[in-house]
Design goal:
The complex is a heterotrimer of chains A (264), B (269) and C (257).
Chain A (H helix, E strand, L loop, with lengths): L1 H33 L3 H18 L4 H5 L1 H33 L9 H14 L2 H12 L3 H26 L2 H8 L5 H39 L2 H11 L3 H29 L1
Helix pairs in contact in A: 4-5, 4-7, 4-9, 4-10, 4-11, 5-7, 6-7, 6-9, 7-9, 8-9, 9-10, 9-11, 10-11
Chain B lengths: L11 H23 L7 H17 L8 H33 L6 H16 L2 H12 L3 H25 L3 H9 L4 H38 L5 H10 L4 H32 L1
Helix pairs in contact in B: 2-10, 3-6, 3-8, 4-6, 5-6, 6-8, 7-8, 8-9, 8-10, 9-10
Chain C lengths: L1 E12 L2 E12 L3 E5 L6 H8 L7 E6 L2 E2 L5 H10 E4 L11 H6 L8 H6 L4 H13 L15 H13 L5 E4 L8 H18 L2 E6 L2 H7 L2 E6 L2 E6 L6 H8 L14
Parallel strand pairs in C: 3-8, 3-9, 6-7, 7-8
Antiparallel strand pairs in C: 1-2, 1-4, 4-5, 9-10
The chains are: A mainly alpha (264), B mainly alpha (269), C alpha/beta (257).
Chain lengths: 264, 269, 257
């Protein structure tokens, strides 16, 4: 009997060690492929910290740029909100078509899932560079890139909640003879609206974070500001931009968390 | 009985909901009026967009690289993602234990989470560019820069998983006089193993996408960089299409893997 | 007069049979209880009647109207005449009690009125009267997800009653309730049947409840009707066959061997 128990523990330990060894090998291979030197990586920390403290601090000259920075920040926030709201509308429509609770036909479901997958598995940067070719350095490029990414994520989440949470109220209302539109308006929307809004707020947080990246690539918004100062070695101004971004993100996060607690 | 009969109610939750939606929709509508199109012809641009998408998705091809080279680029990007995931996960695991409110002091949890909130508020690309000043635009800056968000995300996820552990189990173990370290290694980690693996793989999925982005925006190499060149330098839509297909396929496979892991984790718990 | 006629009803889900040639008639004003194990097909049977589930073959007539061929408006019209209550009440959780009751009138409205939820004063009055009758007057403006299981089920009954239905289908209405609430619900259903002449068909898994309240009991096993008679004719042996147990192993009171 003790032999068997020992065997179980030995097998478990063997498995654990096996897993750790595989992980170590994979990591070592990855470092090889990317030519990443762990030593360099570690050394970069104190070096970067030293540089940050010395150079990455806003000065008076940087503060003169504040108005234009805030302007671009505002633009970025507005575009993020637009992308989130429009994406939520589209995603909700897609979820109604694709969810087994409300779909007009089973064939819609795989199509809707495919659209969602396309949206979220093509990185937002890819979308940004694609739309840059057609829409140039205008807010439309960033808007569309964030929009598609958001539709991808929101459709998946909305599908899930429509499938699960809305199923019982929908059945209850269908049984009274109400039509499809009425069922959606009187059962689906009231049941899901708080969750939909909560997801929208979450997506907005994500989009504001992505917006900097998108702006960098498409020459719009706050990303453009950072790129401008960084490339011209104006690090104090770049630092100011960073600080502004951090403030906006943190404030939005706090607001979003508070709202979601009350809404749900 | 005459007069009106009220049907609906107006609690704090519905007011907050209505207010939030009004603000969001209001800003959206306002945005269309306030933002500057800079003389763009929307109709023309939209037509071009569909034309571009058509070429991209339906006639992919490559002039500046071969299929194996693209495969290598994908592998490179995956490797970047993997490195930053692992390097972020290890400290996240250790500190996540301390940040869990049922395992560590409350002030430490508060401090760690605050620190992480700040770290995550700085966009990843900015972290990478900051490190690139000292280390140059390459893998080192990319991996180190990406690790910040990786660490932050996983710290939050891990500590929350640890906090979900049954209080009774921990209490019972403490009552036997077991040390903190043995409780952690013999009870906490084994019970959370499924969740830990699931979260880590989820982050790997995100890190792959981020690695593509760093390749494009911060010169880190890999498919992201190829994509940046194809679209911004060569203006070769066939290449953009092929690269996008490659990235899409890889991302879908990762997502499938992450979902499988998450479902197994759910079933187990 | 037959309110409900089911003829050779079959339903299978991708080749797996759930109902196998079920035939059943229910007269006006009858209180019929359907008993059987979980998965025997009770829920499927009930849902075929108002087409929440599509029958595979067979015919169903409600008030002499062929149900299986109805579409669109006709189907919705049928559903307004057939009320239904569910195991989990199936209410809209964040809306008020009175609004959920009024939902029973949505099937009668034109699209716009339905979409916007416009109810007449007389409808609202009717809803309030029903709530008073069911003892929920004080909860009229409360969110439904704040109610107890028994209260939610009463809201469900009110929603069905406001339709002025000829027939009410009840899918395991007391399965999730404590004994006290369960009695309140079953008493109310019996009262509706006796006082208003509304035909009631209830799915139950508690045999004693069926014996106590029903005029007729239908026993279903593996999608087929095994018993269709008065409660006094229900013997333990038959129950055992329906539930696939030895009749010594059953906890059933008031039923002979």
């Amino acid at each position: 009997m003790t032999r068997r128990v020992e065997q179980v523990f030995r097998d478990r330990n063997l498995m654990l060690w096996g897993l750790l060894v595989t992980l170590a090998v994979v990591v070592w291979l990855s470092a090889l492929i990317t030519e990443f030197d762990f030593g360099d990586g570690l050394a970069s920390f104190p070096r970067a910290l030293g540089w940050l403290v010395a150079n990455f601090v806003p000065n008076q000259r940087a503060l003169n740029n504040l108005p234009s920075i805030l302007n671009r920040l505002g633009e970025t926030v507005v575009v993020s909100v637009m992308a989130t709201v429009l994406a939520a509308l589209l995603a909700f429509g897609l979820a109604l078509l694709g969810s087994r609770t409300t779909r007009p036909h089973p064939l819609f479901t795989p199509v809707v899932r495919a659209i969602g997958s396309l949206g979220r598995n093509i990185p937002v940067v890819a979308w940004a560079m694609i739309f840059l070719l057609a829409f140039g350095q205008t807010f439309v490029t960033g808007l569309l890139a964030l929009l598609l990414e958001s539709v991808g994520f929101l459709t998946r989440s909305f599908l899930e909640i429509t499938d699960e949470t809305a199923a019982e109220p929908v059945e209850g209302l269908r049984a009274t003879g109400a039509g499809w539109g009425t069922v959606v308006a009187q059962a689906v929307v009231p049941t899901l609206l708080p969750s939909l809004t909560s997801w929208m707020l979450f997506m907005l947080e994500t989009n504001i974070r992505s917006a900097t990246l998108v702006g960098l690539l498409t020459g719009t918004g706050i990303g453009f500001s950072f790129d401008l100062y960084y490339k011209s070695l104006n690090y104090p101004s770049a630092a100011l931009v960073t600080i502004c971004i951090v403030v906006v993100v943190l404030v939005l996060e706090a607001l979003s968390n508070a709202l979601r607690k009350v809404i749900l | 009985m005459t007069g009106r009969i009220r049907v609906r109610r107006f609690g704090a939750d519905s007011i907050a909901l209505a207010a939030t939606l009004t603000v969001l929709v209001g800003v959206t509508i306002g945005g269309f009026f306030l933002l500057d199109l800079k003389g763009l012809n929307l109709g023309q641009a939209t037509a071009k967009m569909f034309h571009d998408l058509g070429i991209m998705f339906f006639s992919p091809g490559a002039d500046h690289f071969t299929l194996p080279e693209m495969g290598w680029g994908l592998l490179f990007t995956l490797a970047l993602g993997l490195l930053t995931t692992v390097i972020g996960a290890i400290p996240a695991l250790v500190l996540g234990l301390l940040a869990a409110r049922n395992l560590g002091p409350a002030w430490l949890s508060w401090l760690l989470r605050g620190f992480v909130a700040f770290v995550r508020a700085v966009p990843t690309v900015l972290w990478v560019l900051i490190f690139a000043v000292g280390a140059g635009l390459g893998s080192v800056a990319a991996v180190v820069g990406m690790t910040f968000h990786s660490f932050g995300y996983l710290l939050k996820a891990f500590s929350e998983s640890f906090e979900e552990l049954d209080e009774g189990t921990l209490e019972a173990l403490k009552a036997t006089g077991a040390s903190w370290l043995s409780i952690v290694t013999q009870a906490v980690i084994p019970s959370s193993l499924a969740a830990i693996t699931s979260w880590t793989f989820l982050r790997f999925e995100i890190n792959f996408t981020t690695a593509v982005a760093m390749g494009a925006a911060a010169g880190a190499g890999g498919v992201g960089f190829d994509l940046f060149m194809a679209s911004g330098f060569y203006f070769n839509l066939h290449e953009v299409g092929l690269l996008t297909w490659g990235i899409l396929a890889t991302a879908v496979m990762l997502e499938w893997g992450a979902t499988r892991l998450r479902d197994t984790a759910r079933v187990r718990s | 007069m037959n309110v409900l006629e089911i003829e050779a009803l079959s339903k299978d889900y991708r080749g797996v049979p759930a109902l196998n040639s079920v035939s059943l008639t229910v007269k006006k004003g009858e209180f019929v209880a359907i008993i059987g194990r979980s998965g025997a097909g009770k829920s499927t049977l009930l849902r075929c009647i108002n087409r929440l589930v599509e029958p595979s073959t067979g015919r169903i007539r409600v008030d002499n109207i062929e149900v299986t061929s109805l579409r669109g408006k006709g189907l919705r019209g049928l559903r307004t005449r057939v009320g239904m209550i569910f195991q989990h009440s199936n209410l809209v959780p964040r809306l008020t009690v009175i609004e959920n009751v009024l939902h029973g009138r949505l099937g009668f409205k034109k699209t716009w009125a339905g979409l916007l939820g416009l109810y007449s004063l007389s409808e609202k009055q009717r809803a309030m009267d029903l709530l008073v009758h069911l003892g929920l007057e004080g909860q009229a403006h409360q969110r439904c997800d704040r109610l107890s299981g028994g209260q939610k089920q009463r809201v469900g009954i009110a929603r069905a009653l406001i339709q002025d239905p000829h027939l009410i289908l009840c899918d395991e209405p007391i399965a999730s309730l404590d004994p006290a609430s369960a009695k309140v619900i079953m008493d109310e259903l019996r009262r509706i049947c006796d006082e208003q002449g509304i035909t009631i068909v209830v799915n139950l898994h508690q045999v004693e409840v069926a014996v106590k309240y029903a005029d007729r009991i239908v026993g279903i096993r593996a999608g087929q009707v095994e018993f269709n008679d008065a409660p006094k004719d229900l013997k333990k042996k038959i129950i055992a066959s329906i539930y696939g147990q030895n009749h010594e192993d059953l906890l059933v009171e008031g039923v002979e061997e």
